[in-house]
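pls ignore typos typing on phone
FE2/S2 (inorganic) cluster + seq
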Amino acid sequence: MPVRLRIQRFNPETDSAPQWREYTVEVEPTDRVLDALHAVKWHCDGSLAFRRSCAHGVCGSDAMMINGKNRLACKLLIKDVKQPIVVEPMRGFAVVKDLIVDQTKFFEKYRAVKPYLIAAEPPPKTERLQSPKQQERFEDTTKCILCGACTTSCPSFWANGEYVGPAAIVQAHRFLFDSRDQGAAERLPVLNEANGVWRCRTIFNCTDACPRGINVTKAIVEVQNLLVARAKDPRGSDAAQ
Ligand code: FES
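k done
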């Protein structure tokens, strides 16, 4: 079937402003928007730039705004989107070229929350054990693939690019609520800063945008509640229960 795409094109090295270009390609209804973008690149205009890698919703590299909402192009079927399919880069990041955005600061914020297990005790001979119930406490936030769809759909982030953002908070949550982790004292000060979790206005755009179905807003509120609990009881146990 023929499919019409309206794609925002922009090369900051040569263009003064973004421009819209329209393309028509042949794809199957059960193909993904990523397949249509490939068809444009391979058959209409080889200069179109976008990121993709796994093509199966795992790597998070092809998050972009499709018909006004952040989506993974590799997860969205042609038959499920209205035409023309309007494709733009995620909002709030500088555009490197076309649909590719500069995620340098995004990953700086990710690193700032120390997204790895911090434990004082040396590793045991086997694994660090925890019960299924303890694992369930942070199961939802383990699903994050760092695509950036949540952070770049957040009006608080659009207004203030220094906001740590939903994705970094989700990553912090994943370790703060892990019974094996003892890094709360290192992570919480970052999240309690002026550009930390308190910038969230519970707008729910992040939850709506997450291609992994993570309840992002709930995770943010849980981190806020943890900060309040620690303010009342600074000696609370390291891993939040
Ligand atoms: S290309 Fe990896 S998530 Fe879409």
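The pocket of FE2/S2 (inorganic) cluster is lined by residues 52-55, 57-62, 72, 74 (CB under 6 Å). The chain has two domains: 2-101, 104-232. more later
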